[in-house]
Write a structure and sequence with these properties.
This protein is α/β, with parallel strands linked by helices and 221 residues long. The chain has eleven helices and four strands, in the order H-E-H-E-H-H-H-H-H-H-E-H-E-H-H. The longest helix is centred in the last third of the chain and has 25 residues. This is AB hydrolase-1 domain-containing protein.
């Protein structure tokens, strides 16, 4: 869902660009100064878009197992889109295993129904269907979107993530060659949940770098 944000007329979902616009509007109205953005999965994808669409409002971004890697285009994402429809409990258990670096069997059993309910909500189904029909050239990230990114970026990735399409990490590492990175062993698609302390330390380190960078600019000017 989208919290208290309103939806476009006659639609139960927002496009990625619309979500980026909402985020930029929030930064302008509620923060009022350049902010550091941290986003997981689609949130990382939106953070990249917002850094380009509202550069003056973004100080830096941290991408946690981010989505949007172009890979082989639409063909790379079709199996992903089909899987997250979660038509049955077998698929729910598969997705749980793909997401997490390690999950106890009782949690796998207890969580499967809630995971299916989450992904079968109308807002998710219609958003995914729209993405599957969209032009990948317009929606997926390009190498230049990262290489020429107008703000500093950091990368956090769970090395046991088998949920995002294969090759996603390599795309971000290759096109953010100078970005500080936290690569977590025995961690999956949600590092902020599986390794919250390590992620918090990285975010603080990255924020300190941004502050030092801003201070240096001020002293030079």
């Amino acid at each position: 869902g989208y919290g208290f944000s309103s939806l476009p007329p006659s639609r139960s979902y927002m496009t990625l660009d619309e979500m980026s616009d909402v985020l930029a509007g929030f930064l302008a109205a509620a923060v009022g100064s350049p902010a550091m953005l941290a986003g997981n999965s689609m949130g990382g994808w939106i953070a990249v878009k917002t850094a380009w669409q509202a550069t003056a409002l973004v100080r830096g971004i941290v991408l946690l197992d981010a989505g949007g890697a172009p890979l082989a285009g639409r063909d790379s994402w079709v199996p992903f889109g089909e899987t997250i429809g979660i038509p049955d409990m077998k698929t729910a258990r598969l997705v749980f295993r793909q997401m997490f670096g390690g999950i106890p069997a009782p949690m796998l059993y207890l969580g499967q129904h809630s995971l299916q309910d989450l992904f079968q909500r109308r807002v998710v189904r219609e958003f995914v269907a729209n993405m599957m029909d969209a032009d990948p050239e317009k929606e997926l990230l390009r190498a230049a979107d990262l290489r020429d990114l107008p703000v500093p970026a950091g990368l956090v990735w769970g090395l046991n993530d088998h949920f995002l399409p294969k090759g996603s990490l390599e795309f971000f590492r290759e096109n953010l060659p100078g970005a500080p990175a936290l690569l977590l062993k025995r961690c999956g698609y949600l590092p902020q949940r599986e390794r919250p302390v390590a992620v918090l330390h990285f975010l603080r380190m990255f924020a300190a770098r941004l502050a030092a960078r801003s201070a240096q600019r001020i002293s030079v000017s």
